[in-house]
Specification:
Distance between the termini: 39 Å
Helix content: 55-70%
Shape: elongated
Strand content: 5-15%
Length: 691
């Protein structure tokens, strides 16, 4: 008997070390693959464009033409009082220097503006091909050569310059985003735990989870060709730290409770995993299922977000349910110093904010519910103030050289677009297509370009500014007239993005709602409770978008909204919002099974989980808020809407609306499950958890 007990004790002591050893081996194997993720990360047009759109086909076919992908720049020379002869000489010399350093397609020719203030030189080359780093090096070299002097302004614009400036922002989604996220999470964990050591444990484990996620993302790319862009990789990191820290908060809170009941940390951790493990597994599964619904999207950038986000959540889950418990058990109670939970002790009595909130919701549930719903509805009206689709030149928070160059061209050349429309047509009918293009209203000029692989390239200059209503009409007319040809280019790409996003919302949103609802029904064994949670997160999404409409233009000065904002914010807010709903409802059901009356169960669940949910919500909102410090308007808008939505969900919906709805409906909240029909006989009561 004593020998058997000794073996069990030795096994308990050895299991955490075994888990730790397995993680060391896993990281050693994953290390080389995680380091390669940056090598397969691309931010080309085809990585974001719709899979089946005309503009995507144009970009792909151009890669197959002789010389491969074309890198197009425009050198813009401008003097407000009019260009001088010396200015024109300087421009010619600088363009000649660029031609000497690089292999250009054709000889660049200067095009003067009608008012004599501006001279532009279109420059194209196939030298970088599809290599983004070589493209950026080419653009940077041209910028080193093309410099103004004595009042002459020189700017480098065009599609390649815009892409290079965007890639600079995406580069910040690697190291800088990671460092900022880690710093934000560290500060919040220090404030939450008030311990010099405890905060470091979940933070390090989350970092290990991110390392594993990067390796898994690389594996997906190699095995299935999953697109890895700067946006999807950056959001994967945010999900690992945000969701992972949430799971850690729930586990550590329950572990602290169990340490007051169990002498051995191992036993306390087992009890903690039994208590909160099902909720964590269910919530992570719901988030993963919601993200995987993005695979139904036609937009490449949205579709790639699904598997990478899922990888991030699952790696965070694996780290927090295996590595974190092992480390905490090995460190023992001292990891909580100076607030070490002793066996048999009770926490210091203090007035609970969530107990007060629950009391107010419990006294007048219908009034609280109606007031909260009215507030969310009023905020949702702000969506009417959302600006229209953002134009390419308005996607940067700080206006780089490429944007100011395009603005200068728009003012100096109002009769023509400085951004080409690209057409790929079967080579056999190129002459007829060229004639049809030149006869299309809104076309200022067209010329035949490269031919190869059965396709001919035609470059079109529109008479209207880029992404104006007139240019959009010209693109649509060209697509209507040119059957069998593909019409692309930067403006066509933006048009396809808008159309595809509208299609994806109609397809993906119902799939997300249905999948999340089915998971909740299976977990909670009820129909009413899942409907409440889903309705609540949809209301939060509308209110968060409405707040965006109130601040994007008037406060942030943004001139447009990213077309993908609605879909991505919906998927993230529904998946992550339901995550917190599961924490609350799972505890409410647990209390009901212990024999508590519905109202008492709801208020007890809020009191015991409210603090953890609030802490988790703050951490998750803060991690997504990091995106608001990035240099691209779509990322700022997405980070703002998700962060605001998480805060609304945490402090309004979970604490007031879901609780008051549960109190008002009483046992009907579990309909048609057995808890809605007959009171359960009280089971063995355990000491009430400390929130």
């Amino acid at each position: 008997m004593g020998a058997a007990r000794t073996r069990r004790t030795d096994g308990r002591r050895g299991l955490p070390w075994l888990v730790l050893g397995l993680w060391v081996v896993l990281l050693a194997v994953a290390g080389p693959f995680a380091a390669k993720l940056a090598d397969v990360q691309h931010d080309r047009a085809t990585d974001y464009l719709p899979a089946s759109a005309d503009s995507t086909q144009v970009a792909r076919l151009q890669d197959r033409l002789p010389g491969g992908e074309t890198t197009a720049l425009v050198l813009v020379y401008h003097r407000a009082g009019g260009l001088t002869a010396a200015d024109r000489t300087t421009a010619a010399q600088q363009v000649a220097t660029v031609a000497d350093r690089h292999t250009l397609t054709g000889t660049p020719k200067g095009i003067p503006s009608a008012d004599g203030t501006t001279l532009m030189y279109p420059v194209t080359t196939n030298e970088p091909g599809t290599d983004e780093k070589r493209r950026d090096t080419f653009v940077d070299d041209v910028r080193q050569v093309a410099r103004g002097q004595g009042g002459l302004t020189v700017e480098v614009g065009g599609p390649a310059a815009l892409a290079t400036d965007a890639s600079g922002v995406y580069a910040s989604l690697g190291g800088p985003l990671l460092y900022t996220t880690v710093a934000v999470v560290a500060v919040l964990l220090i404030l939450i735990y008030r311990s010099p050591l405890l905060w470091l444990v979940p933070l390090v484990v989350a970092g290990i989870g991110d390392f594993l996620a990067r390796a898994a993302a690389y594996g997906l790319n190699q095995a299935f060709g999953t697109t890895v862009s700067g946006q999807s990789a950056g959001i994967m990191t945010i999900l690992v730290f945000g969701a992972g820290t949430d799971y850690a908060l729930l586990l550590v809170s329950r572990y602290r409770e169990e340490l007051r009941r169990h002498e051995r940390p191992y036993d306390a951790m087992r009890a903690a995993l039994r208590g909160c493990g099902p909720a964590v597994l269910a919530s992570s599964g719901t988030v993963a299922a919601g993200l995987l619904c993005l695979l139904a999207a036609d937009l490449n950038s949205s579709r790639s977000m699904g598997p990478l986000g899922t990888v991030g959540v699952l790696c965070a889950l694996a780290a927090m349910l295996t590595l974190l418990p092992a480390v905490l058990v090995l460190l023992g109670r001292r990891v909580f110093w100076p607030l070490v939970p002793a066996v048999g002790s009770t926490p210091k009595a203090r007035r609970s904010l969530f107990a007060a909130m629950g009391s107010s919701a419990g006294r007048r549930p219908l009034t609280v519910l109606a007031s909260g719903a009215a507030l969310l509805g009023a905020l949702a009206l702000g969506t009417l103030n959302l600006p229209g689709p953002v134009k390419q030149l308005d996607t940067f928070v700080d206006r780089p050289d490429s944007v100011t160059a395009m603005e200068t061209l728009a003012q100096a050349y109002p009769e023509r677009s400085a951004q080409p429309i690209e057409i790929l047509t079967p080579a056999g009918g190129a002459d007829a297509v060229l004639a049809a293009v030149r006869g299309t209203r809104g076309v200022a000029g067209a010329r035949e370009g490269r031919t190869g692989g059965g396709w001919t390239e035609i470059t079109v200059t529109a008479s209207a500014p880029p992404q104006s209503a007139a240019e959009t009409a010209t693109i649509k007319e060209l697509r209507h007239r040119l059957a069998g040809s593909y019409v692309g280019g930067p403006s066509a790409q933006q048009l396809d993005l808008e159309d595809t996003d509208a299609r994806d919302r109609l397809v993906v949103v119902p799939i997300v709602l249905l999948s999340v609802l089915l998971i909740l029904i299976a977990l909670l064994r009820s129909l009413v409770a899942p409907l409440i949670l889903v309705a609540a997160v949809v209301a939060v999404w509308g209110a968060a978008l409405g707040l965006g409409g109130l601040v994007f233009g008037p406060l942030f000065g943004f001139h447009g909204t990213d077309p993908g904002l609605g879909l991505l914010s919906f998927v993230f807010l529904v998946a992550l919002g339901v995550d917190y709903g599961i924490f609350l409802m799972h505890r409410m059901r647990e209390e009901s099974l212990r024999g508590r009356e519905p109202a008492e169960a709801a208020l007890t669940a809020l009191r015991t989980t409210g603090g953890v949910i609030a802490s988790a919500g703050l951490v998750l909102a803060a991690t997504f808020a990091v995106l608001t410090n990035m240099g691209l308007v779509p990322l700022v808008e997405l980070g703002f809407v998700i962060a605001v939505g998480v805060l609304l969900d945490t402090f309004l919906v979970r604490t007031y609306l879901v609780t008051s709805a549960s109190v008002a409906l009483a046992r009907w909240v579990w309909w048609p499950g057995r808890l809605s029909r007959t009171p359960e006989a009280p089971r063995t009561r355990t000491p009430e958890p400390v929130g």
